[in-house]
Amino acid sequence: MHKDEMKGAAKDAKGSMKQAAGKATDNERLEAEGDMDRAKGKVQKGVGSMKEGLRNALKH
């Protein structure tokens, strides 16, 4: 697993918590921040997966 995958997963989880807290408290700004963090995390996980795939392809 590439470090970007781990960092992206952490951002996604943090965003999920923010999103849930925003919904629970009816705080639209916090919910929006959570949405953005989740999107950033998913992109970062994808980049990490791509890097890992390229690394494995170059080994063989």
UniProtKB/TrEMBL annotation:
Annotated Basic and acidic residues bias: 1-15, 25-40
InterPro entries hit by this protein: CsbD, YjbJ_sf
Superkingdom to which the source organism belongs: Bacteria
Disordered: annotated segments: 1-60
Domain CsbD-like: 4-53
Record-stated family: Belongs to the UPF0337 (CsbD) family.
Protein name stated in the entry: CsbD family protein
Species this protein is from: Phenylobacterium terrae
Organism placement in taxonomy: Bacteria, Pseudomonadati, Pseudomonadota, Alphaproteobacteria, Caulobacterales
